[in-house]
Amino acid sequence: MAGEQQPPPKPELVLLDFSVSPYGQRCRIALAEKGLAYEYLEQNLLGAKSDLLLRSNPVHKRIPVLLHDGHPVCESLVILAYLDEAFPDAAPALLPSDPYARARARFWAAYSDKVYEAGKRLWKLKGDARAQARDQIVRVLWNLDAELGDKEFFGGEVFGLVDIALVPFVPWLPSYERYGEFSVEETAPRLAAWARRCLERDSVANSLHPPEKVDEFITLLKKVYGIERSAGVEDRTSRR
User: Which residues of the chain register pLDDT less than 50?
Assistant: First the structure.
């Protein structure tokens, strides 16, 4: 009927996410860097999951999920690569154009997950298991520091895939330092300086939680899952 208001168009991009998730934050940073508008839908990961999430990611049932015209794309690193391919005109590109550089970026982006994997063992475990986790995360940070070298970003002067993959773990590092009794500044000084440079970018600063909020969340998880009573509790925050 003439004069009737039409419903607003559905957004092209919808992100199913959880605010504290470093994996979801990867997607938010990438979307901001590329200037792509999207609708954000917060998901409940500590209780019953939404029907939309379960339908969109029936295999892993976890966030983040990017809906593009209703079609789901799952797993953070897959989403980042998809944004480059689906929106080639949205600069900057997250992946380098050279095939070898692109393969190397994908390797180190995937390797960055080890920061979180070792870090969660620091606050879940005790005794020798925690000591092993400490050794692991120190080794991972040292390897990342060596790969970065004296470059401004992992891709050189360009902020790209590896930076976006790794930087959401930065607010978790103070908690990991406390549980593991080590210093990022001493272990990986170039990486520590890189983190400070990344935090100066609006896309990063507007997407990450401050370290004290992350530490509060870890404390909450320890209570929710009874970590103090049982070191073998499943970590449900590991969403990719």
Answer: 1, 230-238
